[in-house]
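Subject: LamG domain-containing protein

B.,
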Amino acid sequence: MSSIKRALTLAIAASMVGTASSWVLVTGAEALEVAPGLHRAERSAVDKAAAEARLSGRPVELTSEHTETDTVRVNPDGTLTRSMAAEPVRARTVEGWKDIDLDLVVRDGRLESKVSAAPVSFSSGGRGALVELVAGSNDALVVDWPDALPSPVVDGATARYIDVFAGVDLLMTATPSGYSHVLEVKTPEAARQRELKEIPMGVTSEGSGSLKVRQGGFTLSDKFGREVLSSPDSLMWDSSGTDESRATPALQTQAVEQQPAEAAKQAPVEVKATGPDEITLVPDQEMLRSPDTEFPVYIDPPVSMAFNQAGRAMTFRQHPSLTSWNWSSETSQGGQGVGYQNFDGVSTKRLFWQFNLGTKLAGATVSSATFMAKEVWAASCAKKEINLYRTHAISSKTNWNNQPSAISLQDSKTVSFGREDCPADQAGDRVLNFNVKTAMQTVADKGTTTVTFQLRADENDPVAWKRFAPRPNDDGEVLSVSYSFPPGPPANLKLQNPTKTCSTGAQRPVIGNDAPDLVATTSDRDAGQGQKVKMSFELRKGLGGAGGTLLGSFTTTLVDPRNGKTYMYPQADVAARLPYSGGKIVSGTYSWRPKAIDDTGLATLGPWCEFTVDSTHPGTPEVSWSSEATWIYQGAAVPVTFGPGSSNDVVKYAYSWNAPAMPTSSGQQLVIANDLKCSTTTKKCTLPLALPKAGFSVLRVWSVDAAGNPTTAPATIPLESAGLVATAAYTFNDVSEPAAAGNNSVVDGQDLYLWGPVPRFRGVFQPEPQDEQAQEPRLEYALEFAQGGVGWTDNPMVGTADSFTVAAEVDPVNPVGAPDAELVSSSTMISQVAGAGYSYRLGVDTGCVRPDATTHPCYVFAVRNTAGQTFTARSVLTATDEPGMVHLAGVYRAADNDIALFVDGELAAEVELSGTLVQPTSTSDDLTLVGTVETGAGIYQYFAGYLDEVEAWTGAAGEAQAFLIAGRLRDFRSYSRPEVATP
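Prediction pasted inline below.
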């Protein structure tokens, strides 16, 4: 496996190690949050660290929240302290987090740091890539040296390749965020050789990124255009610059060859693209050949890497176009300068630090924040002011001509640290702690993802010149912020008992005389650190805010808000605060608002909620039905209208049969706003109601207002059936094949059996328009008879010894081959067997006589008496095979000894009888036939067509009742005869 592939694999594997709350998938210049939120194991780790901090009374590292640059500690009070470095201080490995260790070791034949956040490897000699650097999860950089390299001499993080050109060494150094390399030109003779006029280097990118060369260096961007790797401007300098007569030694001098002294002779190195995968360095030849140049001379070709938008920049007025991104280590005089000096040449410099915050502090309340800067050298023991500003963002392109403006001064220190001849009380650890709480609170409030600070001294006073280390301590922590998150906004606000949602204005809920519970929930990002939350409720008369009168407040105890914890202002306490009059809550509008408060005192207000108290009960509702309507019998529905009467706040009705208490079942309630049977304008509801039983019943109707108050006195209506008692009813709405008993509606245990050409359930019925509005079609099923098919019941549908009524919906058709509109054969839909014949039949006869003596088919109801006489009531209406259901009802009135035929609810004919109707004589003929009739010679008059809604009653239906019986089916007059059978 190549070192780049292995590095990519390790980078991705490392990104999956540990329990950070947001996985950093890119180990180079960009961090990508791919799994926000704490998993169960992570939450357990947080809880454990928080518990340890509380017990020990000291901060405990919260490793699950660490990043490459950030160290997080949970404090005993549950707050967090996040300490941030401007470059990586640890790396995520397959074994978990490890501190950065840049010392080079050999792995897979290449030199790599022991632990690095930026996977970089150097050549171990010979041909091949000088540098391989993974700059993200999908991008990598490869740098090639033009010739074979000698085996390097390794010293810590630096590999020295001796005599890559005659008298020129190449120094490769791993840095926390990438690498740097420097050519050390040892002698004037080496400086004059041809190889230093132009130095070609292969530079390629692997992955989806793109490489762009600029005047002094280059940048590598990922596929989204984000800069993942960049280089500062290439620079060369000589070994001059330290004037001991004017510069007092630093407290601790550290000689570092890879940085120029203040007064060193410096010159830019041109970088140009000379091929698709090649750049060429062009050192300044005048400087190399000048007799004033002091050797060694150092040539710094580009490359160091920015990490995750965090980094450092130095701007240099005397070199205004020079970029110095992630200036590393100290200069040969110790540290990097701030301010103005004129004793080592002339320098005016400013230093910047930038930190990537992501969303880690968004919404937090900052309790303290400190920026730490270590002063390692001062021009004098005289105390001089150093200022810290918050500025706009920096980048790898920042220089004196392109530096961000200051936003605000954060803090100032007047000190003189860093000189060995200064008073001891000014030495200490030489770390200046600047208060940046204001800046960090602003960042938290705005959710800013980066913050940048600048150190600046008096740029007119050389005595104010100071030098600072890139990091103040071994941990590399520069910025420390202590913070806590306020509780989340109170949520799920509602009233309880009765349950109502939180609303205001016209949508506010209305309640009755029972005080409610006030309920809310909340959350807290610090709950995992052991912080608890309480809820404070405020209750007012009138609208919320200054417009209302405070009635009282209630505060719960502190509890863990997780797992949906509910906070409640209990009903009893609310009732104790509400005003009463005459034993009732004073009607009117009330408001309430919760506030979540954690145990550090941070609070978040919830919204105002309102409710109206209405203690007045509505009056008795109005109940009415059509003047033509008559309560017929058990099961027959009558359209009944409920009205609000004198009340104007009715929102629903409830009704019951023969029960004095108001029902709570939704099936016996009508909510005006939600029910299509109701009008929101008139607040009236019309619904079909049927007597629940034969004989006497009582209908009661209640009005209910928005507060849930029912009418004090329901409308009470006694009703009695008109003497009809249903004995059989077949709707044929079972869609299965009726091959055996039990597949149809059953009344009093009667089953309908079918035989012969199989009648099938079929038919789609289209309701007629209601109030000029089309109704949705619905499936209605009927029996389809072909001539020869019959049905029968085990017992008569109705007894014929006294008054009775039989009815059916029919649509007769001609047999195949008889296309005439008028029916060509007589048929029977329903008949009762009685001896060697029938007692009644309901059907069609073809020989009916018109007033003009012509004959035509008509609908008939016929009966036979014991003397063998037949009496027939015939309709004037001609029976045709045109599509359309017709309702037929035949009535036998024993008291009047006559019969009547009703067609579609209208009286068609009446016929007086003589004698007594013939009755069934034995069990064998105790049958009602469907689709045929019995004669002494057998069964005949087979029915062809559609049959539905076969019904029978004891008792004789009058004109009003017959009209209502037919009217129940009137909505489904129009239908489509199916062309294929419906299974």
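The CA atoms of residues 389 and 409 lie 4 Å apart.

T.
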